[in-house]
């Protein structure tokens, strides 16, 4: 008997680790799932809880209803829970929920809340605030919305940093979005510090551990492979940054895909090594789907390249840690 010889071309897949879900995304999804368990359906969610269609569709199937604004929630459903997404919300949103007498749960990532608090402290200390981030991203809207309109100036690029003119003559301070490119942000900060040596910087980086670790892993893998796939959504800031990081680190083919059905197979013809990562909002099952799809066409060997271990987890909101009213026990 002769052993079957594979006619498929060999492909080494180097899996970046860490990749995929971070503690903030994990917490946000758990909040929706536990709210459905505890309060039944429907549970309303303002904005995509995390930027991933697969996750959102899964939660919709369980009874979550996604809206962009609280005004979309019917008046006879104001007693249903409404959850704010992991990206954070402007102060006006919980205030609006209170006015409408809604019961809300805040799934804002604690690392985004930390930036909100920094903004408030700078404002209290009468500093003029610069936020480094992407215009229109929900996290940026949420952070700018912690303070009165016009208080925070947004800077997106080094050119913006060069042309920025302070408005008040007060001491300056800067903050950043949590999901930026570590390298791009360092460039922007360098320009700000050169122009304004006294500018107050965050005590500890605002770019979060998950964004930093995923970028580091992609940087380590990119020089070892001919192509990179990042699993993530086009509106996911940290996924987009991972794709860029791979490209800048020398990957001539660096694609962002949401599902295996989006793979541009012609681009990967003749490739013998592939890097694979996933943005912080992409579940591992989608990474497995990509590996399975490559296994249909290639003889795949998978190797993991780990550059950091992650052990961070965040507490759930108190309302979800307490038992449901029917099973209530005396308070501690
Ligand atoms: S990417 Fe960072 S800031 Fe965003 S949810 Fe995850 S841990 Fe929080």
TrEMBL record:
Positions of (2E)-4-hydroxy-3-methylbut-2-enyl diphosphate binding: 51, 87, 137, 178, 236-238, 281
Gene giving rise to this polypeptide: ispH
Active site (UniProt): 139 (proton donor)
InterPro entries: LytB/IspH (IPR003451)
HAMAP family: IspH (MF_00191)
Magnesium as UniProt keyword: no
UniProt pathway: Isoprenoid biosynthesis; isopentenyl diphosphate biosynthesis via DXP pathway; isopentenyl diphosphate from 1-deoxy-D-xylulose 5-phosphate: step 6/6; Isoprenoid biosynthesis; dimethylallyl diphosphate biosynthesis; dimethylallyl diphosphate from (2E)-4-hydroxy-3-methylbutenyl diphosphate: step 1/1
PANTHER family: 4-HYDROXY-3-METHYLBUT-2-ENYL DIPHOSPHATE REDUCTASE
Cofactor-binding details, from the entry: Binds 1 [4Fe-4S] cluster per subunit.
Organism: Roseibium litorale
A Pfam family hit: LYTB
Family membership: Belongs to the IspH family.
Annotated positions binding dimethylallyl diphosphate: 51, 87, 137, 236-238, 281
Name of this protein: 4-hydroxy-3-methylbut-2-enyl diphosphate reductase
Protein's UniProt keywords contain Metal-binding: yes
Catalysed reaction equations from the record: isopentenyl diphosphate + 2 oxidized [2Fe-2S]-[ferredoxin] + H2O = (2E)-4-hydroxy-3-methylbut-2-enyl diphosphate + 2 reduced [2Fe-2S]-[ferredoxin] + 2 H(+); dimethylallyl diphosphate + 2 oxidized [2Fe-2S]-[ferredoxin] + H2O = (2E)-4-hydroxy-3-methylbut-2-enyl diphosphate + 2 reduced [2Fe-2S]-[ferredoxin] + 2 H(+)
EC id: 1.17.7.4
Ligand binding ([4Fe-4S] cluster): 22, 109, 208
GO molecular function, one term: 4-hydroxy-3-methylbut-2-enyl diphosphate reductase activity
EC top class, as a word: oxidoreductase
Keywords, alphabetical: 4Fe-4S, Iron, Iron-sulfur, Isoprene biosynthesis, Metal-binding, Oxidoreductase
Role played: Catalyzes the conversion of 1-hydroxy-2-methyl-2-(E)-butenyl 4-diphosphate (HMBPP) into a mixture of isopentenyl diphosphate (IPP) and dimethylallyl diphosphate (DMAPP). Acts in the terminal step of the DOXP/MEP pathway for isoprenoid precursor biosynthesis.
Database matches in NCBIfam families: ispH_lytB (TIGR00216), PRK01045.1-2 (NF002188), PRK01045.1-4 (NF002190)
Cofactor(s) demanded: [4Fe-4S] cluster
Annotated isopentenyl diphosphate binding sites: 51, 87, 137, 236-238, 281
């Amino acid at each position: 008997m002769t052993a079957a010889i594979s006619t498929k071309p060999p492909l080494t897949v180097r899996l970046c680790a860490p990749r995929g879900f971070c503690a903030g995304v994990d917490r946000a999804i758990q909040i929706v799932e536990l709210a459905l368990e505890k309060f039944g359906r429907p549970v309303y969610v303002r904005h995509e809880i995390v930027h991933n269609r697969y996750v959102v569709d899964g939660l919709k199937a369980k009874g979550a209803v996604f809206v962009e604004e609280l005004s979309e929630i019917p008046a006879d459903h104001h007693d249903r829970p409404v959850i704010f997404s992991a990206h954070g919300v402007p102060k006006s949103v919980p205030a609006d929920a209170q006015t409408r007498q809604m019961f809300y749960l805040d799934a804002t990532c604690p690392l985004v809340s930390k930036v909100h608090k920094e903004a408030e402290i700078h404002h209290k200390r009468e500093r003029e605030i610069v936020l480094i981030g992407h215009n229109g991203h929900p996290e940026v809207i949420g952070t700018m919305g912690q303070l009165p309109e016009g208080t925070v100036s947004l800077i997106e690029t080094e050119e913006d940093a060069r042309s920025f003119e302070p408005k008040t003559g007060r001491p300056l301070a800067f903050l950043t979005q949590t999901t930026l490119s570590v390298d791009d942000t360092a460039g922007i900060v360098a320009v700000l510090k050169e122009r304004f040596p006294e500018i107050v910087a965050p005590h500890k980086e605002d770019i979060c551990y998950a964004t930093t670790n995923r970028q580091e892993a992609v940087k380590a893998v990119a020089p070892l492979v001919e192509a990179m796939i990042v699993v993530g959504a086009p509106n996911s800031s940290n996924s987009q940054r991972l794709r860029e990081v791979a490209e800048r680190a020398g990957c001539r083919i660096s694609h962002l895909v949401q599902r295996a059905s989006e793979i541009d197979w012609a681009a990967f013809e003749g490739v013998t090594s592939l890097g694979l990562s996933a943005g912080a909002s992409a579940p591992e099952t989608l990474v497995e789907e990509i590996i399975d799809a490559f296994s249909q066409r290639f003889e795949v060997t998978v190797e993991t390249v780990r550059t950091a271990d992650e052990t961070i987890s965040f507490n759930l909101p108190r309302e979800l840690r307490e038992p449901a009213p029917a099973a209530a026990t005396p308070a501690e």
